[in-house]
Specification:
It is a single chain. By secondary structure, this protein is of the alpha+beta class. The protein has one domain: BH3618-like (Roll), CATH 2.30.290. The chain is about 15% helix and about 25% strand. A 7-stranded mixed β-barrel has the order 1-2-3-4-5-7-8. A hairpin with a 7-residue loop joins strand 2 and strand 3.
């Protein structure tokens, strides 16, 4: 067993202690992975890693929109809400997928396709906001 394999197994064991999020539909391009955990990457709660339970190498950098996009208020369509279990809007956790750039100043967030999670049943999905005109690569800027 290699050191990397041991490290991956230890990381997977740590991840299994966290609440699992079940994706209703897989992330585009990753049809086999439907269970993820959300791991905080900084003490301020600005960045998280959405990590696959079954694949230590599959993870997405995500963030809550408010610190960077305070006016961002996506409207989740009825079909997506029904798939999630018809949660109340205040029960939804909305996360944006971040694309890292060469530097932090070049990172962008996908405003068009947020990940939406029902906090109660931990079901989630990435949904495309139809007719919104929002960008797939919005530059990050600290609000305030």
């Amino acid at each position: 067993m290699t050191a990397r394999t041991i490290e991956q197994q230890e990381m997977q064991a740590d991840l299994l202690d966290l609440p699992v999020i079940d994706l209703i539909s897989p992330m585009p391009g990753f049809p086999e992975s439907r269970q993820f955990v959300l791991v905080r990457l900084d003490e301020n709660g600005l960045l998280y890693s959405l990590r696959a339970v079954d694949n230590a190498d599959l993870r997405f950098l995500v963030m809550p929109p408010a610190p960077f996009f305070p006016d961002y208020a996506p409207e989740i369509d009825d079909e997506a809400a029904e798939l999630l279990g018809s949660p109340k809007p205040e029960d939804l956790l909305v996360l944006l997928v971040v694309t890292a750039g060469d530097t932090a100043a070049h990172a962008t967030a996908n405003l068009l396709a947020p990940i939406v999670i029902d906090r109660g049943n931990r079901k989630g999905m990435q949904t495309v906001l139809s007719g919104s005109g929002l960008p797939v690569r919005a530059e990050l800027a600290i609000a305030g």
